[in-house]
Structures are given as structure tokens and as C-alpha cells.
């Protein structure tokens, strides 16, 4: 990173400089660093590196990189400045940093880096005589700002060891050997010189590296007898205990509710059994649990699945250090969900609420204290899930209908909840009517729900279930799709846009249309319009001779030609068809599919082969038009009690000539 910049400046020939700059752009292009950032870095001269800092916070990183992509830190733009890279210095009259610093021992190197207070404590303890001559050692030296933030208790313990080279805090910052950042790995342990106590190194995608969750601000400063890294906090062995996370939770005293839940779920043994693995526990305090109503908490704790989901939602399968959070970051838990970390100038948040800065490091991870409980979906009621999805219009009707308590505390139900956009797509007069007539609102809400937990992996095409109104059925549809799982699920012509939000008392699916029960059969709907008389007469003729030839009680799709479409066949041809009962039956069967086919999930550019009761028709969607073979759908998606109707402008004759 640095050497490419140096070569660019050494060159005197323009063509060489262009070649070198092109090489630089090629190297950094993969990281999407804008060209102006590259040019700005090139203008600084050789051996110059970026320092990233955010005013008013502890965020300050000497990157040891010449090229650095600008980014937001906790919602704000950090200051980017340039300093000499490690080991170099400026020479008067030259651009960049062309002077090479002499190597010094680790004490003098730490002093030069501004760790004056740490060096003073080292000297007062008498450790300097060893550290300045022997080695090699690696020192993680706290900055002077870190000492300003230390507690009185820490200061007292440091002061009490003056003149004593066995100072626990100082020894805890020292490791035998020369360890640079090239050796760092995620969840790597180093052995300190204090009783062999461990130090935990972590690396994150945010380019933050930590030791015991303190940020390593400056790294890899070479010395004659070791390496110096500057960190932003004091490493205190008092806050790093040689106990596993399970012991820490039990013995802390603030987590009795959490301990009880873990005992009931057998999670204590699970945490102990994975002692060699690392984890983060976001531990809600007893006060946090008290913020949940006793009725709801009891139900969660008595529901094995909900309780397990709750516990898993507070355990991350790796060590999460808060300095690594520089913006919104979704972190997978042991459960099915992710928790969201974010930050601003005031600090880090989890679940959109402040996270305390205090933490405890154990043998196999870290514990943070939460002032709130992170409820996963499985521990939430259907009402809470609807609130999460901001379904305010549907919720307004639920409450107006007097059904909030049912969906909050009872059931197991499956709810097909219309999105906010679906609710506002209703005619204003319809929405106003629902909001003013309690009985209509009650029926409306009940029609959008059914008994039991029905997730999409247990749905089948043409599956029928009774809605909670106990009068009208809900019919499910499955369609192929080029995205996601390859299947789109629907109910009564509406598509499920957000599936399987499973709560403690049921499952919620968010749909893109409001549902109203069909009240008339397909035949009754068609009889209301004289335009379809030929199709109806043909159906009556065939079923009169054979009443059971069509099972019209099950959901079906009817492709209904208009009278005009039949008349286009010509009178003579039409009469021959109508008088030939066998061929007429085949023709009608070719217009009926045993699947309920809605037009909305049909994707442009695809051809859908749909079996009819006779053959297969090909359906396409192109330029906003739906075609069934060579017929165009002129009215679509007319729901009936026994299926769905699409009006077409041509007759779908069977595969044979009939002239």
C-alpha cells in the first residue's frame, strides 16, 4: 500500500508515472476507493498514511494505509488526515515522509507515540530497566486519553504498586515475543505476563481490531526489542475473569430471571459444553424482565419454544466488541433472527436502545448488561408482530372490532394481514364504512384469519381452510417464481409478500390485497351479464346429460369466452360444435383448470403451462396483457365461491381441426 505511492513519487518520467498510477488504481479498484481519494493520497507524497478520527468520540485509528475509502462512522463523516507511516518522518523541503526513523527500545518507542502516562507508570514500577534492554516483548500501551478515563479504583491500584515490578495492571499489557497485526486472528488469545492471564484479540469487517474489546488505535510500531501497539483503554485483569459465561451469569446477582430461564431450558449445560467456543451474552437485567407484563412473561416462560427463542436471541456465537460497531450492523444470534447494532455519538445501541458500556470478559466470551429484553418474533404476540410491521390501519380495525385481546393473549391463529398499502388501496368509502361499523369490522378481521399455525412450508395449492368467521373459506394458491424460494404463495388472489412471521400465539403473513369473501358462484356471476350466454348454455347442456362431468364444488379457474368470441367462429361452425356433445364437452373442459390461477404472480417473459381438464394451455404476460394460448384476457381475477374467472376474447378449441 505504501510502496506503490513511493514508487510514483520517485519517478520523473510522465509515462512511467501514468503506468504506476494505473497500477495503483488497479490494486485499489477492487475496494471501490473513489479516484479523487486516490489522487488526494498520491498528492501527499510517499510513506504517508491515513488517520481516521471522529470528533467528540474515542474513534481514532491510524490505518497504516495510504488509500482509504471514506465512510460514515456512527452517522457522521470522520476527519481524514495524513501522517507519516510507521517508521518514517518528514524531511524539510521534501514532500511526504522520506526520512527513516532509527529503531528504539519499546519504552522509548511508546513514549514517542504519546503513551507518556503508561511509560511513567512503567518507570515508577521499575519495569523499564527490563523492558528497555531485554525482550523481545509486545506492549499494548494505553493512550494518555485512556488514563484520563480510568476509575479511582484503578488509579489507586496502580499507585499502590509504585516501585513494584509485579504491578498486575502493567504486566497485563505485556506479552512475550514480537507480535504484529499480521499475526492477529479473530478470537485469538495471547498470554500476558500477569500470571499467564489471557488477552483476547478480535478482528472485524469494519476494519477495527480490538484487544479485550479495547480498540487498537496504532499498531505495529517496531522497536529494537519488540513491538508497540497503542490502545484506547486500560486493560484491567479485574474485569477479565477465569470463569465461563454460565458461571458469570449465575454469580452476578443481577440476572436471576435470566438464570431461571436458562435453567428451565437446560441452557446452562449448553453454555458450559461449548466452553472452547466464543460467545456474547446480551444479558437482560431483572429490571429489564420486570418491564414485561407478568402475564406475558409467564406465557413466554411456559412455552418451551418461545423461551428457547428468547434465550437464543440474546446469545451471539462469537465475541462482539462495541468499538467494532460503526453503523447499523445486523448480527446473527444462536436463533433464527438477527439483532441490530447501531451507534451515534452517544454510544452503541442494540435493538434501537442504548447498550451500557460496561462488560465482563469471561473464559469463553463477553457479557453485556441490557436494560431491555430483545424479544424475538417467537416470543411476541400477533398484535406485537403487526405493530412491528407498522400495520396501523389493520390494527385499528382489530381494536375497533374488539379483537385485540384475542390476538394478544389467545389462540393459535394464522393471520393474513393486509399491508398498509393494501388497506389504503381500498375505496375511501369502503375504508370509512369499516371504521364506523363495528360488526363489519369484526367480520372483516375474522375473515383474514384461521385456526392453527399454518406456515408456508405446510401450504399446498388449492388448500382450503375455514376462516375465523366460521362462514367463509380461505383458499390457498402456489405459483412458480424466478426469485426467492421459487414459489409464491397466495390466498384468495392476494399474494403473501412477507411470509411466516411466527409469534407466541400464531403465524402472520403480510399480503398485498385486502380480502373480501366471495358470495356468489361462477355461474351466478356470469348469469348477471348476457355477454356470456353461449358459454352458460353450453355448460347447462353438457351437465344436463351428465350432471357429474364437472365437479364445480372445488376451487377452479374458468377461462370464459364472450359471446362475441363464440360468434367469431362463424354460425355454421358454432352450430356444429354446439350440436356435437362429445366435442362440446372437450371444448368446455379446455376452459376449466382445477387450479386457481390469479394473474398477478405471472412474470413477463415466462410461459406458464397450466393443465385444464382436457389438455394444457400456455399463459403469458407481455406488455401488460395476459394471453391464454392466442386468446387475450379482457377481464381478470373475478373471484367466486367455487373459483376464479378470467374473461377471454377467443374460444380455446381442442387440439384438432373442426371445420
TrEMBL record:
Gene3D superfamilies: FAS1 domain (2.30.180.10)
Domain of life from the UniProt record: Eukaryota
GO cellular component, one term: extracellular space
Ranges of residues in domain FAS1: 102-235, 242-374, 378-515, 519-652
Transmembrane segments: 16-36
GO molecular function, one term: cell adhesion molecule binding
Keyword set, alphabetical order: Membrane, Transmembrane, Transmembrane helix
GO biological process: cell adhesion; extracellular matrix organization
Name of the protein in its database record: FAS1 domain-containing protein
The organism's taxonomic lineage, starting at the top: Eukaryota, Metazoa, Ecdysozoa, Arthropoda, Hexapoda
Amino acid at each position: 500500500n505504501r510502496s506503490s505511492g513511493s514508487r510514483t513519487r520517485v519517478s520523473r518520467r510522465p509515462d512511467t508515472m501514468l503506468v504506476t498510477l494505473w497500477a495503483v488504481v488497479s490494486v485499489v479498484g477492487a475496494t471501490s476507493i473513489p479516484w479523487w481519494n486516490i489522487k488526494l493520497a498520491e498528492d501527499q507524497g510517499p510513506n504517508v498514511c491515513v488517520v481516521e478520527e471522529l470528533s467528540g468520540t474515542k474513534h481514532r485509528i491510524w490505518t497504516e494505509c495510504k488509500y482509504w475509502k471514506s465512510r460514515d462512522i456512527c452517522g457522521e463523516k470522520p476527519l481524514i488526515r495524513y501522517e507519516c507511516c510507521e517508521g518514517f518522518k518528514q524531511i524539510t523541503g521534501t514532500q511526504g515522509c522520506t526520512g527513516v526513523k532509527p529503531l528504539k527500545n519499546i519504552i522509548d518507542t511508546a513514549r514517542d507515540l504519546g503513551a507518556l502516562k503508561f511509560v511513567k507508570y512503567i518507570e515508577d514500577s521499575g519495569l523499564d530497566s527490563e523492558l528497555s534492554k531485554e525482550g523481545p516483548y509486545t506492549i499494548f500501551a494505553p493512550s494518555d486519553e485512556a488514563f484520563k478515563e480510568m476509575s479511582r479504583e484503578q488509579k489507586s491500584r496502580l499507585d499502590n504498586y509504585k516501585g513494584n515490578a509485579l504491578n498486575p495492571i502493567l504486566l497485563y499489557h505485556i506479552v512475550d515475543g514480537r507480535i504484529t497485526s499480521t499475526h492477529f486472528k479473530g478470537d485469538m488469545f495471547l498470554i500476558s505476563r500477569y500470571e499467564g492471564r489471557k488477552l483476547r484479540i478480535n478482528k472485524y469487517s469494519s476494519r477495527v481490531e480490538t484487544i479485550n474489546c479495547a480498540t487498537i488505535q496504532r499498531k505495529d510500531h517496531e522497536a529494537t526489542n519488540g513491538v508497540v501497539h497503542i490502545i484506547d483503554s486500560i486493560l484491567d485483569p479485574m474485569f477479565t475473569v477465569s470463569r465461563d459465561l454460565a458461571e458469570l451469569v449465575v454469580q452476578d446477582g443481577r440476572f436471576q430471571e435470566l438464570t431461571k430461564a436458562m435453567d428451565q431450558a437446560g441452557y446452562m449445560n449448553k453454555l458450559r459444553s461449548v466452553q472452547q467456543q466464543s460467545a456474547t451474552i446480551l444479558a437482560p437485567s431483572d429490571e429489564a424482565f420486570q418491564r414485561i407484563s407478568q402475564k406475558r412473561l409467564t406465557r413466554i416462560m411456559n412455552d418451551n419454544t418461545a423461551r428457547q427463542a428468547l434465550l437464543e436471541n440474546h446469545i451471539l456465537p462469537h465475541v462482539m466488541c462495541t468499538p467494532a460497531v460503526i453503523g447499523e450492523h445486523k448480527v446473527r444470534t444462536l436463533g433464527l433472527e438477527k439483532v441490530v447494532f447501531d451507534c451515534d455519538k452517544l454510544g452503541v445501541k442494540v435493538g434501537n436502545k442504548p447498550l451500557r458500556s460496561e462488560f465482563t470478559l469471561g473464559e469463553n466470551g463477553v457479557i453485556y448488561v441490557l436494560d431491555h429484553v430483545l424479544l424475538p418474533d417467537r416470543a411476541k404476540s400477533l398484535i406485537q408482530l403487526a405493530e412491528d410491521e407498522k400495520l396501523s390501519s389493520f390494527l385499528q380495525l382489530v381494536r375497533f372490532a374488539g379483537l385485540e385481546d384475542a390476538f394478544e393473549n389467545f389462540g393459535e391463529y394464522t393471520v393474513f394481514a393486509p399491508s398498509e398499502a393494501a388497506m389504503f388501496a381500498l375505496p375511501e368509502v369502503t375504508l370509512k364504512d369499516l371504521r364506523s361499523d363495528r360488526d363489519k369490522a369484526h367480520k372483516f378481521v375474522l375473515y383474514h384469519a384461521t385456526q392453527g399455525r399454518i406456515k408456508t412450508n405446510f401450504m399446498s395449492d388449492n388448500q382450503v381452510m375455514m376462516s375465523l368467521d366460521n362462514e367463509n373459506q380461505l383458499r390457498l394458491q402456489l405459483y412458480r417464481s424466478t426469485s426467492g424460494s421459487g414459489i409464491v404463495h397466495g390466498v384468495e388472489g392476494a399474494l403473501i409478500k412477507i411470509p411466516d412471521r411466527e409469534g407466541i400465539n400464531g403465524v402472520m403473513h403480510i399480503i398485498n390485497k385486502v380480502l373480501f369473501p366471495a358470495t356468489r358462484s361462477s355461474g351466478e356471476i356470469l348469469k348477471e351479464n348476457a355477454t356470456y350466454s353461449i358459454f352458460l348454455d353450453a355448460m347447462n347442456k353438457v351437465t344436463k346429460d351428465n350432471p357429474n362431468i364437472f365437479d364445480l364444488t372445488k376451487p377452479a379457474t374458468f377461462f370464459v369466452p364472450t359471446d362475441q368470441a363464440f360468434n367469431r367462429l362463424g354460425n355454421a361452425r358454432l352450430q356444429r360444435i354446439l350440436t356435437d356433445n362429445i366435442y362440446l364437452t372437450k371444448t368446455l373442459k379446455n376452459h376449466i383448470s382445477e387450479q386457481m390461477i390469479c394473474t398477478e404472480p405471472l412474470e413477463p417473459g415466462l410461459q406458464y403451462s397450466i393443465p385444464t381438464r382436457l389438455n394444457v394451455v400456455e399463459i403469458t404476460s407481455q406488455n401488460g396483457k395476459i394471453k391464454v394460448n392466442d386468446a387475450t384476457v379482457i377481464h381478470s381475477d373475478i373471484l367466486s365461491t367455487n373459483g376464479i374467472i378470467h374473461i377471454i376474447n377467443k374460444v380455446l378449441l381442442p387440439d384438432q381441426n373442426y371445420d
